[in-house]
Amino acid sequence: MTNLYHIPVMPSESIHGLNLFSGAQVVDATFGGGGHSRLILNQLGNGRLFAFDQDEDAAGNVIHDDRFFFIRHNFRYLKNFLRYYDVQKVNSVFADLGVSSHDFDVAERGFSFRFDDKLDMRMNRKSAVDAAGLLNSYGEDQLVFIFKMYGEIKNARRLVSEIINFRNHQPFQTTGQLKEIASKCAPRAIENKYLAQVFQALRIEVNDEMEALKEFLEAALEVLKPGGRLAVITYHSLEDRLCKNFMKAGNFEGRVEKDFYGNVQSPFKLINRKVIIPQPEEIEKNVRARSAKLRIAEKV
Description:
300 residues, alpha/beta, seven-stranded mixed β-sheet, 13 helices, 9 strands, 15% strand
């Protein structure tokens, strides 16, 4: 089931970057299909792996191993749940921020414009607001902000005008309705890219992804032991910028602090100064890896 659910991206680069050893305490903050987790467990000996995922579908992939602990919650609550297991500090924290292939391929989850189904997009299906509810209730300026900020859509105001015009006659319910409206605004040469940006922007807002990522990064820094490694795979420029800045400077603006002697004061040492990207052979086998970027840092 795991391979069908999600193919792990940059598996060897990720595992190598985590600097694992027998007896290590490790967090996989984005369990998904469990591909990375299984590889991590192979390196842990008598160590322990704490895996987080808020998606109930991911719970079907749990690994039956005494060293494995599955926590069905958002990774923003990392610190709280580690404390529940009486774990104060860990040796490595890993996160793959991509939406699993499984979620994109299940029509009713509403993540993809390839299907015409319920406009949902909730990672945690117990959340109150889904994508349709958001589109039907947000004000014009709120919607423009979301599509500009999270989708980097240049004609966001025109798109929002079409959305409001549509919902004035009937509420949004399906991915097909949103695709039809967005397609009117999409530049012909890059229609699929435009649609992907529209759906991405909505998904980020529905799941509060940017704030959750910030809280996760701050928690990861707090729970890592000195010398512990943080490895994160990102898929779009917004989340990559947050990770890059945080690893470089310990803040989300990338504001570098220096001591009296001009030495950079950062809680991390960068392991890879140049971002790691998948090899062409991997992209050929798994096209969804094409935009992936891996960054690794060590707590000082």
